[in-house]
Write a structure and sequence with these properties.
This protein is an alpha+beta fold and 174 residues long. The protein starts with a helix and ends with a helix. The mean pLDDT is 84.
Amino acid sequence: MRKEDKSKVIEQIAQTLAEYPNFYLVETSGLNAEKTSALRRACAKEGIKLLVVKNTLLHKALESLDGDYSELYPALAGPTSLMCTQVANAPAKLIKDFVKKDDTLPALKAAYVEETVYVGAEHLDTLATIKSKNELIADVIALLQSPAKNVVSALTSGGSKLHGILETLSKKEA
């Protein structure tokens, strides 16, 4: 590959990584054509961008981005596929589903999720259950709304009770 072509590929990888806040480094080299096609279809269905990349080009693309990705560099050995996603836990769930069917692959090498680095396949269960920022914000809003709803409900029911009492008292006097 010519130097100009390499720089274009590095730029494309860096641009892709900049578009997606979360990405996974996965070992998929042992998959046959049928399983690779199934993985690609599943990724497309979940909104995951799957790229097979050269480690040196990915390394240079990571270096060109803002942020420190040095913890991921040791995972850049052997064949590497890059799974980019907007939803933090989608690739982990997908990998778990594939591992249930075939014990060996795809294997998680590392992941960069919600600005945190995870290295090693032992983090797969953690990554599958992790919540995205939007899910956490929704949980906090729901918790904040709960007491307000209780107060409004109490005031509403109390208001109708008070109205009933006042009505009864006004009828008694008459």
